[in-house]
Amino acid sequence: MACRNLKADLVLCVQRSPCCVRDHNDVATCLRDHTNELPEECRHLRTAFFECKRGMLDMRKRFRGLDTGTRRQDLSKAQEIDKFQDPLSAAAASAASGPPTNS
């Protein structure tokens, strides 16, 4: 199934949301009745999952192939980029705090 990874990520996100944890609702209830209360990441995953499922029915995509949802690959790329940016942001933070003072 092409949308399996997106569905798994969506379920995990909703299970960790206050709707499930604090209010003790199940995932289906949160997705159906409390969509506006979900974190932004869960709402984006919900939209991506919907688009993936809709793409499975779109006859034009049958010729081009399905977009299988490369969220995990995108996250790993973003984490690799963050590794390279961390030294720069640490240097910028230390420069913003000013020069060291001698007491």
TrEMBL record:
<dbReference type="Pfam" id="PF10203">
    <property type="entry name" value="Pet191_N"/>
</dbReference>
<dbReference type="InterPro" id="IPR018793">
    <property type="entry name" value="Cyt_c_oxidase_assmbl_Pet191"/>
</dbReference>
<protein>
    <recommendedName>
        <fullName>Cytochrome c oxidase assembly factor 5</fullName>
    </recommendedName>
</protein>
<keyword id="KW-1015">Disulfide bond</keyword>
<comment type="similarity">
    <text>Belongs to the PET191 family.</text>
</comment>
<dbReference type="GO" id="GO:0033617">
    <property type="term" value="P:mitochondrial respiratory chain complex IV assembly"/>
</dbReference>
<dbReference type="GO" id="GO:0005739">
    <property type="term" value="C:mitochondrion"/>
</dbReference>
